[in-house]
Amino acid sequence: MTSPFRRFVIFAEMRTGSNLLEATLNALKGVTCFGEAFNPYMMGWPDKDELAGITRDEREADPQRLLTKLFDRPGHLPGFRYFHDHDPRVFDAIMNDAECAKIILTRNPLDSYVSTKLAWETNQWKLNETETPIPAAIAYDGPEFRDMVSAVERFQLRVMHRLQVTGQTGFWLGYEDLRDAEVMTGLVHWLGRTDIGRVEPASDQVPQNPRELAEKVRNFDEMQADLHQIDPFMLRRIPNFEPRRGPSVPSFSACEAGHGLIYMPVRCGPGPAIRGWLSGLGPVTGDLTQTSLRQWKRQHPGHRSFTVLRHPLHRAWTAFRQLLDEGSADLRQLMRSVHRVALPSDADLGKLSRSDQLELFAQFLSFLRRNLNGQTTLPTHAGWASQSEVIAGFARVATPDILIREDRLTQDLPLLADGAGLDDAGLQHLRIAPMPEFLHEASLLQAARQAYLRDYIAFGFTD
């Protein structure tokens, strides 16, 4: 069968064994790995300023030119190594190219970190069997290590996601696989070079620091204590199955007061009260588009934008009341028949007592927990979506300057107004209704926390 691959890329990081893998591949006839071709600090290898006839300046001006030059080799299998901090302008071209084989090389991140620090300290980046390793030990830096792990993890997840959505697959290698002749043979055959027999790993490089970590790290005990803070299995991660939300620009309100104010509302928050306050300050423009929003911003230098956060329980109650008073009859029927919210007939909704409403509200909160966890067929409505997800949607067009909690409006609005060049915050125009006292029940507060745990953690809401 003809191989689907005409070229390859090795996704790796510093001190993962990528030099050894490159040496193994370069020993094969018709296979060439061009080093770290898109490393911002060099051209393929240290102290080189030119690669395949392309200079660093030419690569800087147009990286696609170098990519094309490296890959345009009929009858040959070319490739290069690509790390998370290499030129991002070629990433999409690599990932969208189904004829480019993706090799993903990984190593225990702590080993990579220590090895990298040792290499910087000794300036010994490769070692052959005739050379003597320079003895050294490093000082472990917790924040530095966690930053490295986070950056590499984000990149690897990005690569994995792009492979999934484009229907491609990668060849995953661990550091320990690089000296396994059977694995190397399998890799080369996967690349399509079945004409090559057994592939022996390169023998001109040897491990540089085969000592125990305790001998290589001066503050080993401190490192062990710090590593307890790291969650390698993401046990503390809150799963997020909500769909990404758009920026909702048409809902924004732009006020002409001072240098200009932009209100970016979260549905089922204090929107009417905030718009009333803005109207008391100056003319307000709504129904914006992304284009008209950009134009308005250009015309109002010094403008300020803000969002108001409402307590999740209060916001859920607002969404529930809207369902009863303004929601579609079809949605209410769906709640009755499918989603375990035992609403009475529409004709009897107005007859509900307060206790009846709270009982139904508890059922609605249970539905919200399932809905926000992706356990229902009903899409997540903007009125009850997590506020953190709504604000993430805003950020695709504009990030608010300030997030104000509803219970702090009178303290924070004067600061916002001052930043927008207003002498008077005009609080006399503000009409805010606090969360109803009857909602302060332990069971309801607990149900709201279960539904909106991400918001509680992200914004520090308390019961």
Write up this protein.
By secondary structure, the chain is of the alpha/beta class. The protein has a domain at 7-228: Rossmann fold (3-Layer(aba) Sandwich). 41% of the residues lie in helices and 10% in strands. The protein has 18 helices and 12 strands. The chain has helices spanning 18-26, 56-61, 63-71, 91-95, 109-122, 142-165, 181-190, 213-216, 220-227, 271-281, 290-299, 312-325, 329-337, 354-372, 387-394, 409-419, 442-451, 453-459, and strands spanning 7-11, 31-33, 50-51, 54-55, 77-82, 100-106, 170-174, 253-255, 261-263, 284-285, 304-309, 402-405. The strands form 3 sheets. Strands 2-5-1-6-7 form a 5-stranded parallel β-sheet, covered by helices on one side. Strand 3 and strand 4 form a beta hairpin. InterPro entries: P-loop_NTPase (IPR027417). This is Nodulation protein NodH.
